[in-house]
Amino acid sequence: MIKIYGMKSCPDCADILHQISGSDRYQMIDIGEDVRYMHAFIDLRDQDPAFDEIRGTGKIGIPAFIREDGTVTLDAEAVGLCRPLHFQTEPHRIYAEVDGTCVAEITFFQQPDGTYVIDHTFADASLKGRGIGTRLVELADAYIKEQGSQWTATCPFAEHWRQRHQ
Question: Which candidate in 45, 52, 108, 141 could, as Cys together with 118 as Cys, close a disulfide (CB 3.0–4.6 Å)?
Fold first, then answer.
């Protein structure tokens, strides 16, 4: 079994957690859940060479993957998972790129009355089943709320999410 140190509140870890849901090949250890898990992770991070690159950079080093043979990697692909997506926010869209190509996007615009309209979501077929569409709508919802506004949607996926969550 591959053990994964992470936190549910970490966006990269949440993506990994979604990928491993229902699999008995992986075990997520939430270092924020119990101080013993945090101590075990810190001991590992302070001693294992897999963390050499991030040590001293201010990065935590999660998600971290411990293979069955005890070796550690920070590379999700090395343990059969997809690397986490990093979302970028612009005033009218949130998106993720892989190797310079947009693989996921949600777009929105602000109406004269100040409300926003989410008009499009897109996730590459290679991301199917990872919850990326939902993640995009959650990020857009949070962004729009940070702007002090509300939203509607012409995008059926976003509208369906809104009806279930608001």
Answer: 108
Contact 73, 79 (CB under 8 A): yes
Joined together, the tokens standing for residue 45 give 């991070």
Cβ count within 10 A of residue 13 = 23
The residue with tokens 């101080």 is 35
Q: What is the pTM of this model?
A: 0.66
d(C-alpha 72, C-alpha 55), whole Å: 14
Q: Where are the beta strands (DSSP E) in 25-79?
A: 26-30, 64-66, 72-73
Spatial strand order in the sheet of 87-90: 87-90, 93-98, 101-110, 116-123, 151-153
What per-residue string of b and e applies to 83-106 under the rule 16 or more CB within 10 Å gives b?
Answer: ebbebeeeeebbbbeeeeeebbbb
Q: Are 82 and 76 in contact (CB under 8 A)?
A: yes
Domain boundaries, the chain: 2-79, 87-165
Pick the CATH number of 2-79 from 3.30.70, 3.30.1490, 1.10.3470, 3.40.30: 3.40.30
Task: Report, at the CATH architecture level, how domain 87-165 is classified.
Answer: 3-Layer(aba) Sandwich (3.40)
Span 129-155, pLDDT tens digits: 778 898 899 999 999 999 999 999 999
